[in-house]
Design brief:
alpha/beta; Rossmann fold; four-stranded antiparallel β-sheet; 41% helix; 21% strand; binds adenosine-5'-diphosphate; binds magnesium ion; P-loop_NTPase
């Protein structure tokens, strides 16, 4: 169980006199929940996704983003009580990913000569290694502190045992093991096996790129995935495949999903538990799945009017 907790988040374009875009966003996404974030073009949806990811184009001007995980969040590492709440804004993008947040923009546009399978295995191992460092560094410090005032020989021995060698490699997912993981995920997503050996993004259609994005999320097994406009430009078949993949992230892996979308259409296939409307850099209204249908029929103007009347 994990919670991404966004509290009064404010952000501007990171340049002198850059436009203020996020005006105080409040939103909690828990693992196992599907949230749809809707809103007109230019309301700040993608900016929110990028700020969560730590994109350097934006500067946070206020508020907080915390990520809460539990002791048993990871199969292989027990999370100590003092490392169960993280201030996300203090972390590098790859550290955020290592804790279990998936953000699609980490997906590279095109890398020459790298096959999907190699890219995905590298991404998974990088995440595992980063995560080990996040938790191991702390372990080491704890040990060092505990050892202070103790036997100095043990200190020396402790420092000599470099965790960078050995354990890092031990934790790596090997080629054969990864093939099995990949195959299972691709079956889950109804993807053609040939996909795996194609070169990253070279000649992938828009729809295939989106499907790869969901595959990447399935491989990295995030606690919370932020998917920005993953439905844009998909034909109906591909939309259904991608939706099936998103549902599997939730149903089979227990991930929380923040699904950013301009159109109601994908929500026919990925039914949200919560729907939020963003207007002018704030969440102006939240509701259940029915809110998306009202928006489809009536647009965003009535929400804007409600906000003006309340002000
Ligand atoms: P949405 O995803 O809801 O369509 P965005 O977050 O992309 O909205 O953009 C919100 C507003 O902020 C828009 O007016 C956009 O032009 C502006 N904006 C976003 N990013 C930048 C940037 N890097 N530089 C300048 N303006 C930006
Ligand atoms: Mg809150
Ligand atoms: Mg956008």
């Amino acid at each position: 169980m994990a919670v991404l907790e966004i509290d009064n988040l404010q952000a501007k374009v990171a340049e002198d006199g850059g436009e203020q875009i996020l005006e105080g966003v409040d939103l909690d996404v828990e693992s196992g929940e599907i949230h749809a974030l809707m809103g007109p073009n230019g309301s700040g949806k993608s900016t929110l996704a990028k700020v969560i990811a730590g994109h350097p184009a934006y500067e946070v001007t206020g508020g907080e983003v915390r990520f809460h995980i539990e002791e048993d969040e990871f199969e292989d590492i027990e999370v100590p009580a003092d490392l169960q709440t993280w201030d996300l804004l203090d972390l590098e993008p790859n550290e955020r990913a290592a804790l279990g947040i998936f953000l699609a923009f980490q997906y590279p546009a095109e890398i020459e000569g790298v096959t999907m399978v190699n890219f995905l295995r590298t991404a998974l191992n990088a995440k595992l290694e980063e995560r080990e460092e996040l938790f191991e560094d702390e372990d080491e410090e704890d040990e060092a502190e505990a050892d202070e005032g103790g036997d100095t020989k043990e200190d020396a021995a402790g420092y000599d045992t470099s965790p960078m060698e050995g354990p890092a490699d031990e934790g790596e997912v090997g080629v054969a093991e990864f093939q099995e993981i990949l195959q299972a995920k691709m079956e889950q997503l109804d993807m053609d096996e040939k996909f795996a050996n194609r070169y990253l993004n070279a000649g992938f259609s828009g729809g295939e790129k989106k499907q790869n994005e969901v595959l990447q999320a399935a491989i990295l097994e995030p606690s919370v995935a932020v998917l920005d406009e993953i439905d844009s430009g998909l034909d109906i078949d591909r939309l259904q495949d991608v939706s099936q993949g998103i549902n599997a992230l939730r149903d089979e892996q227990g991930a929380g999903i923040l699904q950013i979308t301009h159109y109601q259409r994908i929500l026919d296939y990925v039914e949200p538990d919560h729907v939020h409307v963003m207007l002018d850099g704030e969440i102006a209204k939240s509701g259940g799945a029915e809110l998306a249908e009202t928006l489809e029929d009536e647009g965003y103007d009535w929400v804007r009017e409600e906000v003006y009347e309340a002000a």
